Amino acid sequence: MTILLDTDICVSLLRGNQAIIKHRKKYADQVAVSFMTVAELYYGAEKSANPTKNKMVVEQFLLTVHVINSNQAIMKRFGYLKSSLENYGTPLNDADLFIAATALETCDLLVTGNTKHFNRIGELKLDNWIQ
């Protein structure tokens, strides 16, 4: 089983949320992050009060997870999801769509605190470690 961690879960991990750290330890070798989450983590570090320190924290974290890079299947799924959600009048931002597409194409489960956003994608299996 491969578990994709959404950006909010990664941020909570980096901030020392003990409940999420406990979950993470249970699935040590099964967790991954999307290329989009990597970008969001670096963005957060850059806009923080201490970019140098926080970029190092992000880089150390990334050594502990598998990073799933973009590929044609993920891009194709992204296009389908974006079009479908727009047609239903329930669009999501591109970052969330890239994460959802990555989860659907390469993982068994997406762990997120933003279940309200991702519930729009019926076939996506979700878990919330923040609750």
Describe the SSE topology.
Blueprint: E1 3-5, H1 7-14, H2 18-26, E2 31-34, H3 35-46, H4 51-62, E3 66-68, H5 72-87, H6 94-106, E4 109-111, H7 115-118, E5 126-127
Parallel strand pairs: 1-2, 1-4, 2-3, 4-5
Question: Could you explain the architecture of this structure?
Answer:
It is a single chain. This protein is an alpha/beta fold and 131 residues long. It has a single domain (3-127), classed as Rossmann fold, CATH 3.40.50.1010. The protein is 56% helix and 11% strand. It has seven helices and five strands. The chain has helices spanning 7-14, 18-26, 35-46, 51-62, 72-87, 94-106, 115-118, and strands at residues 3-5, 31-34, 66-68, 109-111, 126-127. Strands 3-2-1-4-5 form a five-stranded parallel β-sheet. Strand 4, helix 7 and strand 5 form a beta-alpha-beta unit. Helix 5 (72-87) packs across helix 6 (94-106). The two termini are 22 Å apart.
